[in-house]
Amino acid sequence: METLILSGEKAIKLGAELIKAGEVVAFPTETVYGLGGNALDSACIAKIYQAKGRPADNPLIVHIAKVEDIYPLVSEFSERNKRVVEKLMPGPITVLFPKSDIVPDSVTAGLKTVGIRMPKMAIARKFIEACGVPIAAPSANASTRVSPTTASHVYEDMKGRIPLIIDGGDSDVGIESTVVDLTGEIPTILRPGAITAEMLAEVVGSVRTHKGEVISSAPAPGMKYKHYAPTVPMVVASDMKALIEEYDRQVALDKKPLCLIRGQAIDILGDRKFINLGDSDYEVCRNIYKSMRDAEKVCDYIICIYLEGSEICKSVMNRVLKASGGKIV
Ligand code: TXA
Ligand code: MG
């Protein structure tokens, strides 16, 4: 078989005709080149495995041109997963969904999930669109060789095995897509790529990396920075005993500490300096910022008691812990 290398509109047109005739065509994407065939045609899938020399137990990614093309391929599409698709596709990411019945078992190597990718590169999407069917494609290298990022790399491996290579120049990203399993409660990265765990966490909250760590996004921009900090150092004391010990330690260091405490605790402080945050959780909430500002003017070290109580108290503690850089004594 002669292997053509073509670019531009005529390459896309011929490529689509070949796909419709059940052939395998190599095409460019922003990650690496793919070896594409009709994902809904088992005979074509067999040709892909054969051209690549790939073991049949390694599933193929299904490529689409637009978001709506996902629906027929999957049996479940949650709001969370919709967000991932809307925010990160098209792009260098492959997402695993529970597969629908129209996806042949040979594409997924018998798995119940299907990997779906919408490339960002315009030629890739034009080609898939022109084919009119979803395109199953592994990277266009021969099995065990490195993934191709130019048409000539593909030619080295696929010469005589496929009829056409669509030349789209160099692949921009240069490594294969991030593969992420969206079927579980926490999305899990199976293969890292240009879409990072942090980028995913921005969209879904928590992500398990390919190394098994769970990373979480900051709930709102800026939450990861130290905020609301007074102009003097501040620590949180876990209880009154720790607070008194820390106070006395600072005095011994020639510091002028001051405590932020609840009204009920005043009696056990002796003559140590303090500001009373109030008795109820609402008072404490109302007074916390004001008390920090007042304190920084008259001392050089603030010790705030760990405030336990209602939800509102937890919100106050969130600010107090930020102000103290999370330092607890
Ligand atoms: O960037 C890419 O992803 C490129 C371009 C052409 O899209 N494709 C690519 O395909 O790298 P391939 O076949 O070389 O790598 C796909 C990876 C394999 O490791 C495969 O096991 C995994 O994705 N994979 C695909 N479907 C899967 C599934 N349902 N469950 C688990 N892993 C899957
Ligand atoms: Mg590969």
Structural class, judged by helices and strands?
alpha/beta
- What is the overall shape? elongated
Please state the average pLDDT score: 93
Largest sheet: 10 strands, mixed
Describe the structure.
33% of the residues lie in helices and 19% in strands. It has ten helices and 16 strands. It has helices spanning 8-20, 42-52, 79-88, 105-108, 122-131, 151-158, 197-204, 240-252, 281-298, 311-323; strands at 4-6, 25-27, 34-38, 61-63, 93-98, 113-117, 135-137, 164-166, 178-181, 188-191, 206-208, 214-216, 234-237, 257-261, 274-276, 301-305. Strand 9 (178-181) and strand 10 (188-191) form a beta hairpin. Helix 1 runs parallel beside helix 5 and helix 9 (281-298) runs parallel beside helix 10. The longest helix has 18 residues, at 281-298. Residues 138-139, 147, 176 line the site of magnesium ion (MG). Threonylcarbamoyladenylate is lined by residues 29, 31-32, 34, 58-61, 94, 96, 108, 111, 113-115, 117, 137-139, 176-177, 179, 190-191.
Brief summary of the model shown:
With 329 residues, the chain is α/β, with parallel strands linked by helices. The protein has helices spanning 8-20, 42-52, 79-88, 105-108, 122-131, 151-158, 197-204, 240-252, 281-298, 311-323; strands at 4-6, 25-27, 34-38, 61-63, 93-98, 113-117, 135-137, 164-166, 178-181, 188-191, 206-208, 214-216, 234-237, 257-261, 274-276, 301-305.
Short key terms for the protein model shown above:
single chain, 33% helix, binds magnesium ion, 19% strand, 329 residues, 10 helices, elongated, 4-stranded parallel beta sheet, 10-stranded mixed beta sheet
